[in-house]
Each structure stands twice: as C-alpha cells, then as structure tokens.
Batch of 2 targets.
Target 1
Amino acid sequence: MENILKVENLRVSYHTYAGEVQSVRGISFNLSKGEILAIVGESGSGKTVTAKSVLRLIKEPVGEIKEGSNITFEGKDILTLNRKNLEQYRGGDVSMIFQDPMTSLNPTMKIGKQICESIMIHRNISKEDAEKEAIKMLKLVKIPNAETRINEYPFQFSGGMRQRAMIAIALACNPKVLIADEPTTALDVTVQAQIMDLIKELQGELGTAIMLITHDLGVVAENAHKVAVMYGGMIVERGLVHEIFNNPQHPYTVALLKAIPKLDMNSDERLISIDGTPPDLVAPPKGCAFAPRCKYCMPICKKKIPDITDVSDTHKTMCWLNHEYAPSVDLSLGADDVKISSVQRKDAIKKENIKKTHSLIEVKNLKKYFKISKDKVLKAVDDVSFDIKKGETLGIVGESGCGKTTCGRTILELYKPTAGQVLFENKNVYGMNKMEKRKFMKNAQMIFQDPYASLNPRMTVSDIICEGIDIHGLYSGKDKLSRVYELLNMVGLNKEHANRFPHEFSGGQRQRIGIARALAIEPKFIVCDEPISALDMSIQAQVVNLLLDLQNRFDLTYMFIAHDLSMVKYISNRVGVMYLGCMVELAESRELYSNPLHPYTKVLMSAIPTTDLELVKKKKHLDGGEVSSPINPLPGCRFRNRCKYSKKICSEAMPKMKKVGNNHYIACHLY
Ligand code: SF4
C-alpha cells in the first residue's frame, strides 16, 4: 500500500523547570491510504506529543522537534514547510479530532459557523456553498435535523453529538490523514461504539488514513489494522493487529493485555497489574525504559537500549528477550501467572451466600429531583429501590446522566433526598439524631472519581488522611502518626509520602491516597464513584486489586459505580443497570452479563469493546440511539424512544421491578 505519512527518528523534547523532558525518543512509523494505525500506551508515553509533532503543533521555545527528525507527507518534508503551506497542510491534508469536544469547540460560536470556517479557509468557496457543505457533513456524521442544528451552540449538543461535530469539522476539508486523539475516552460505551463505527465507515467511504491514539485496547482490537505500542517515549512493539493481540513479544504489551479484565474471566483470578510507574523522561534510563517494572529484566537490559528486531516482516519489537542468547520465556497470554495461589482473589462474601447474608444498606423508593426552573425538574433518581448485603460489592452501571453518582451521593446524604428511605443497619439514615448521624458518617465513606480534584492541593498527605481521624477523635499524638503510616502501607505507599503534597504523586498514587482517607476512620460501607476511570489500564488493575484486598481484610461493603462494564463485572457480586434515573435491571453479575434481558442492558453489553479478535469478527453493536433528557421526562418507560420493542403500554405506565429469575429483577413491560 502507498505510504502517505512517514515519520522517521522523531525526537521531541520539552523544556521545563525540572529540566529537558525527552517526551519522544527516536520513533519511526508510516501510514498508508485507508489504513488505521493505533498508537497505544500509558499516559506520558509520548502518544499525543507524536500526534502534535505530525501537525507541527509543538510550540517553541517550550517544546522542540530535535534535529535529525523527519516527517514527510506525500513526499513533502513537513518540518520545513513555510507558513502558507503549513496552513493548507493542517486541516486540509491532515486534521485532528481532540480528546475533549467541550474544550476543543468554541463555546461562543454556532456549530455550523465552526464547520464553515474550516471549509472556507481550505476550500476557497462561498459562504452559501460552505453552509451547504456543513449541513452535508453534519448529516454524514448522523446529526439529526442537521438544517436546524447547524444554528445551535456546542452546549446544546450532547457529549456524543459534540464529538460528532468535531469529526465533521475534521473531515470537512476531506483530509487524507485524520488524527483521532482519544476520540472516545470521555464517552460512554454505547456512544463510543457509535463514534468508532462512524469513523470506520467514513474511513471506508472516503479512504482517509487514520492515526488512532487511545489507551483502550478493546477499541484498538475492534478498529485498527496496525498497532504501535509506546513506552517511555519509544515504540517498543509494532505490528498488525492480530500479531500484537495474538502473539505479543514485548513484556510491556503482554502486561497491558493481561491487565484488562476479560468478560469470561474466572471470578477467583486476580487482575495482573504492572507494578511501579513509567520512567522519568527528564533523566531516561540508560537501558530499556521498562526494566524497573519488567519481571524478565536481565543485566544487559539496564545497560543498553535494546535493538529493534523482526518477529516477522510486519512485526517488530524492542526487547533483549528477542535475541538468541536470551533465556526462553513464555510470553503467551495464557501463561500461568494469574493463578498463583498467594495472589488469588478472595471475595469477602461467597456468591452462594449472597441471598442468606443480611442487608447492610436498604434503599427504598429513593427519589432525588433538582428544580432547574419554575417549570423544569431534573429527575436524577426516580423511585429506585435495592439493597446491598454486608461484605458485598454492588456494581452500578449506565450511561452518563443516568443518576449513578447522584444515587450514591444521596445515600450518603451529600444530597438531600426528595423522597424515599435509606436504611443503614436497619436505621433510617434520613431520620437519625445528631449522634446517630455522626456514627453513620463514620461508617459510610466515599472514594471520588477524580484523584486530581478530590484532594486539597494545599494539604499534605498526612493532613488529608487525618481530617476524618480528627473529626471523629479516633487517634492522637504518636498513635495518630502510626495510624497514618499504617494506612499508607495498607494502600501500597510508604511513610516518606506522608509529608508530601498531592501534586507530587501520579494519578494512581493519588487514588490510593483517596482510598487511605476513606479507610482512615474504619468505615463499613464505601461508595466508590468511578474510582478508576481517570487511570490507565495497568493502574486500574492495581487499584481494583487493592480494593478487593481491603474488602477481604476488613469485611467492607462497596457500591461500585463505573462505566467500564468489564471491570464492574469483575469486581461486583451483583450489578444494577440504571437508565435516566431508574433502575431497569438488577442481577448477579455473571447472570446479568450472560443473560441480559432488558433491551437497554442488551445495548450496553453489545457495546463493550473486546480484545478477543475472534469475538470481534462476530460482534455487532446494537444501535442504541441518543439518550433523551431526564428533565421533565415523559410518562412511561424512559427507554421507550430508543427501544425497538416499544408498545402502547410503554408510553402509558412506568414499568415496575419484577422478579424474573433467581436474584434477577427487571423493569420492562416485555416481562
Ligand atoms: Fe524486560 Fe529486558 Fe525486554 Fe526491557 S529489554 S522488556 S527489561 S526483558
């Protein structure tokens, strides 16, 4: 196939107070017409810097593309283009979809105007023709009523629609290369599947070559032709998608693939995490950057960067194991390091005992409405009932805006409920006196979604952890300090970390601090609100393993809110599915995933990305349509406008929860 983009020996540095950060260290790859190349790796591995370099968006003097680097597009040297040609190249020949559509779209400009602007710059056509083109593009990316929506502002679009508008802008000038930088990371699985299907469809229709940057290996397996795995600013392995997924040859690729919970994973298997953190690229290691985290590390690995070796014509790796004198090791994904008994997963509650165990929390007809204006009410949680047994993990899943977080916060009375009851150890939380409420607050804690925003940047780790200890007067003096050290040790940090500030830690370490803070006052129940969504896959596995260990050790009960359905299945005993404020299905996790009954649950399950290439071939995403608004919802089933089985009764009455099997409940008029 004809190469249109060629990157050779690309080296990029950033100049910071800490010194020169060598973000990209000599990478080479090429991209052919109609091809999808995925670039994967943890945060900080150099993926986005590579994309920005291709568009020459590295701004001097902060950043610098080093001498000796070479980027050619259709044979033209990009690094020497003058300003005029560079303008045509950016947006005209190569365009980019950014990760966060809310910050990349101009909030003060109508969507149509933003598309027209790009068309008029690059295609030299009249305003009227540009408008016609903009409507055509919006239709192409499947925005309904394109003729009217063209006059709307970004805030009037949902997250998925904003991302489609970004794609429309990026494709408006018919670029030959499209760089999609984490285009679906901020989206729900259902919208993610729709957007990726759309990108693939457009690539098929227009022959655009795509550079897809992501850390979601499921998205890669389902969409890419070629994969480049980046670590510490280098491409450590690259090859065709089946070569990387079926025959990975670099220990880092293997570890990344093993860190993903598989849907058919045995419930007593433990997730494989990659211990340690990525290298500091101010002073990159002399040898292999992965050496400190690699269990196969040999003396030569620390001394010399490995050469690039061929596994096949299309498959290359950068590891000393791939040299004839290295010992032979089994890097296959089935290699038996998951079932080591000392690290086997143990649940605090045995699945067969769920029914017999008594409830710690009972939620009865809980409602939480927010009054938006005189005649607008947002029904965030609407008549939800469930219980959580002692020692159990109840997973809650659903698209953004379905009320998962509001439900968790209302249970802890961080929001005042509109109606309903929450019983904690048989006592109504909303009717407790001051003493009882204090006790409840000690017993029920929350781990927040964003490890960056949930820790006070002006407080040391020790002060953050001690806040709850002081409020409840649990420890003082030396005992308090020993407790802080004990907690840090429990979550895999050490006592030297106690006097540091949050900004000195990585995302995974900050989430550990959040967990230590929640555990400090010995709670019985923790609402884990998307505790892993801001973390890389390998770090997610570390945090989930830690949560399970702590649950087992302290008999904790979790409500685990997340939109990563594979991880929810792995960690939860039972799972509840929420849709626009209502609980639509609740069952034991294995049962729910193998036999989803609600039409919405089926759409959700069909959208879970898989890394199993055999399954990818057979897989078909069910079209779930757009989520409707929870503001002044119409009577009847909230899912009815997206449901292909909808009948008359569905618009007349809200379905009630019914038992349809052993521990399996559903709210749907079909049952
Ligand atoms: Fe591990 Fe050595 Fe290979 Fe690096 S070169 S990945 S340390 S075995």
Target 2
Amino acid sequence: MKRALVQKAKCFSLRIDDIAPDKSISHRSAMFSMLADGVSVVENFLRAEDTLNTLQIIRHLGAKVEDDGKVLRISSEGIKESFEVLDCGNSGTGMRLFCGLLSSAQGHFVLTGDKYLRSRPMKRVTQPLRSIGAKIDGRNDGDLAPLCIRGGELKAFSYESQIASAQVKSALILAALHADGECRYKENELSRDHTERMLKGMGAQIETDENLVTTIQPLQGPLKPLHIRVPADPSSAFFFAVAASIVEGSDVVLEGVTLNPTRIEAFYALKRMGADITFELKEDKYEPIGDIHVRFASLEAIEVSERISWLIDELPALAVAMACAKGRSVVKNAKELRVKESDRIATVVSGLRACGIEVEEFEDGYAIQGGELQKGKIASHGDHRIAMSFLIAGLKCGMEVEDVECIDTSFPNFFTLLEQIAQVSVEESA
Ligand code: S3P
C-alpha cells in the first residue's frame, strides 16, 4: 500500500491541457464500438485502470483493438462468448453497462470486480433487466457480483426508474436496442446523457422528451462506427478547480473539458460559493467541449440539494471547498453517495473531522462548518475521489493520505499535475 504526503502550496497560475480524458465517455466508446459495422476511431481514450479493464473485456468478447499508443481503432463482428471471466476491476459503470450489453448477446458471461465492486448493489440493473427476460444471477439473489449472464431474447418495456442513475439508464438503453419492440425509459431527474448522445451519433433511434421519457427503437442492423476524440473529464478537472479556489491568489485554465450540462454542475456550485469561473465553448460534436477558467476568490457557504446526479462525483472535492468557505454549507438528497466506490458520506465526514472541521452527518448528506483546515492522516478506503479530494485539501495545510493506488483507476497523471503546485511525495506505507 502507498501513502502520499503533500505540503502546503503557494499561489499558482497554470494552464492544464492534460487533464485525464473522460471516464464515462471512454467506457462507452469502447463498448459501443462493438455495435458498429466498421472501424471505430477513438482518440484520447482514458488509459486508467477502470477503462483499460473495459477495453480488455471487449477484446475477450471478440473485438479487435488496434492501439498505436495514441488512437484506438476498434472493430468487431458482434459479441462472442468468452472463455475468460470478465473483470471490471473497480468500475460500477463497467459492470452495470456490460449487464445491459450482454443481456441479449448469445452465450454465457461472468462479470466480476475487485472487493469494493463486489460489495456494490447491482440489483438496480439486474432487477429491471430480469423483468424483461434477461437471465442474470449473482450473490444475494442477483444483487452482488460475480454475476452470471446468459444472453437471450428481451421483451419491449416501459420502465420508470426511481433513481437518477446514468448507469441504470444506459444498461436499459443497451438492452432496449435488442428488445422485441419500442422501449420507454423514464427518469425523474435527467442523469448524464452520454449514452443517448453517442448512440444517436452512431445512428440509433433514441429520443428524450420534456418529461424525461427516452424512447428507444430496436436496432435494424449494426450502427455506424464512432469517430470520437474523448474530451477531458470534468470530474477530474474539478480537483484543480477547487485547488485554485482555496489557494489564495491562484488561477487555473482547464482545457478541452466536456461542458455537457449534466457534468459541470459542481463548477456552478463553486461559482455560487463566490469562485470566479468562466466557460469558453470551443467545439460541439457528440458533446460541447471547451475551457474552464477558475480564479481564486473568497468562498461563502451554500446549500446543495437539487440536480444531485449532475454533481454526484464532485461532492467530495466540493466538500473541501465547503470546509474552506465562510459559514455552514449543507448537502442533502445525496443518499447515492453511500453506494459509490466507498460510502462517501461516511468517508467525507470522517476525513473532514480528522482535519479539525466540524461536520454533521445525515442519512442523505452532511453539513460542513467552514473553518481552518488542519493537517490530518486520511484513509482513502480504496476510493480515488476521496484520496484526491484530501490531497487537494492538503494544499492549504499539508496532508497525509493512505492507500493512494486507487487514483490510477481514473486519473493516472494526477500526481504529475499536483507536483506543479506543491511538494508531494509518494512512499510505501510502513
Ligand atoms: C456514471 C454514472 C454515475 C457516476 C459514475 C459514472 C456513468 O453513476 O457516479 O461515476 O458513467 O454512467 P450512477 O449512474 O450510479 O449515478
């Protein structure tokens, strides 16, 4: 196990053009290429553990992946039964989307993951998929991996989801593409919509109306190949947005980030807190893409209780900004945090308390009394976003974070970028 020590930072001014490529879009680009009838070309694919696992899985499923180190060229002749156990590693997105993709494929498939993923709930996808005829099983009556899937015929459906989850929506859309008729999926709050954008770009017939009902027509044949350059990941970029907002006098430009509204709500929350943030749109193909400029300004407390799915992954880093703000910030309606890579309500609360911050815990969130962050010893609980959030907090006061290997699941060059701001050392734990 490795631990990282970061020292207090001086003010910085940076342009970052190598924020990690978007994880959600990278997973999808690999998986969706399997639905096309030609060579999909994917530039700037995220080479991190989670998405490399997905790439390995599509190879096991028969895809041919040519990789010149920069661009991936992916082709496939349909999904083939695999001799291998399909290992999603730490990735909930990988496992849940593969459930949807494999439910209609010919053959028997076994999906597994690391000890954290094997404890996360899968019934949110296995139950609706089973209800349309998918044959999926796993521990605890299909809730926990390893999961076994025997692909087969799927019935058309109309499903209303009780949780705003892009993973559930995407799994059901992938299943709908091979169902025996038109399908409808309704959500109560729009979750990230990369699946719909990308599949539509490939020629699938998918429409979402103003009541958030997505209608999906079954495929008549293969889709057009994808030609995509994956934008930078706003969830990764956000760590450096928080860094610039809490280190007095700092300024950062985050280049080439997806500005998809379902992904940048945390930047708006930080702006509401008083941070000086501007967005510059540069292009718009499958996604709007541009630069985000963040300059230091003193922060005030806010309440966050709406459009939670638009900033769910950024809440741990936002909690660090809240700890540095004047007043009591509140996060509510965020129960989904409990089933992420760690129980992020518990890990944010215990981490901030270890840094001397007063925090009240709720079942669905927390209240943070802004104050003076102090150097603490933080356990990441194997959760990349917890590890990175507390290293960013360390820019104020120094910090020691245990178990930092998990950062490689989403942001392999995080330390290289952090070193441009502060002294950092990573060492083997005693
Ligand atoms: C993701 C959706 C979100 C998010 C996760 C990535 C995706 O999960 O937290 O990091 O790529 O679809 P939920 O769909 O469970 O909210």
